[in-house]
Amino acid sequence: MENIKSQLQKIESLLPQIDKENSQVSKASVGWHLEHSLLILNGSLKGLTMTNPDNYNPKFSIKKFIFLNFGLIPRGKIKSPKQFIPLEIPTKESLEKLLNLAKERLEAVKNLPLKSYITHPFLGDLDKNTTLRFLGLHTNHHLKIIDDILKD
After folding, report:
1. Any idea where the domains of the chain sit in the sequence?
2. Can you give the pTM of this predicted structure?
């Protein structure tokens, strides 16, 4: 959870650079990567509050094992579900709203049962701690891309 808090601080520090692009690294701007990350964070954190822990049904998957243990996400290979793809060009204001919502939702999941979960489209059911790990790894993936975009 502390990891995600520090990532949210990093996201906040990147807001002045949302219009930066580097087509050698990514077709998307810094703002796009920030918004996508915040949409995933907000959707997943909300999802944790909406499931019944009694229905948690984890299954082993090699994809899940590799991702959670090695943090490997190949760039440009995985399609995100439509609801997590920014529809418009992100603005500082729209990103600030998403950022504040993410901070609120992160606080809200603190006291949820450990078996609160989300169902990830590729990885299956992820309990609270695994969801937070997933969110940290996913956000880190996009922050690395942003770092590469900003290298000039």
Report:
1. 2-10+27-150
2. 0.92
